[in-house]
Amino acid sequence: MIQKNQKNHVHFGGFMLSLLQKSDIKCSKCLYDKSVKSGIIKGRQHYKCKECGSNYTVELKSTAKPKSLKKQALHLYLEGLGSRSIGRFLGVSNVSVLHWIKDFWKRIR
Ligand SMILES: [Zn+2]
């Protein structure tokens, strides 16, 4: 039992670490976060995605939250984190997080 708990803890710690280390720079198409700088155009840093090859800028922000962010929020919620902590972690408002959690409960009911 203790071993299992320790394993879960390590897994959770790794997950948190990967969240912290993740950069905000993500491909707008595939959300892959590994990119190369492709130059500055009109004062904006452009990046080229290493995964799908599309070009994007960091300023391009869509109002719709990517699915992976919602998934991460729910993962953290199920790990026992509060909506405020999750919001801080993912850089979204805790209202959004609460909305996702509500949505989640609706769907599994
Ligand atoms: Zn991409």
Describe the structure.
The protein starts with a helix and ends with a helix. Helices cover 50% and strands 15% of the residues. The protein is built from four helices and three strands; from the N terminus they run H-E-E-E-H-H-H. A hairpin with a 2-residue loop joins strand 1 and strand 2 (44-49). By secondary structure, the chain is of the alpha+beta class. A three-stranded antiparallel β-sheet has the order 1-2-3, with no helix packed on it. The protein has two domains: 23-61, no CATH class; 62-109, Orthogonal Bundle (Arc Repressor Mutant, subunit A), CATH 1.10.10. Helix 2 crosses helix 4 and helix 3 (83-90) packs across helix 4 (94-108). Mean pLDDT is 77; it is low at 1-10. The chain binds zinc ion (ZN). Zinc ion is lined by residues 27, 29-30, 32, 49, 51-52, 54.
The CATH class of the largest domain is: Mainly Alpha
Instruction: Summarize the main sheet.
Output: 3 strands, antiparallel
Distance between the termini: 30 Å
Shape field: elongated
Per DSSP, the total helix count is: 4
Ligands? zinc ion
CATH topology descriptor of the largest domain: Arc Repressor Mutant, subunit A
Average residue-wise pLDDT:
77
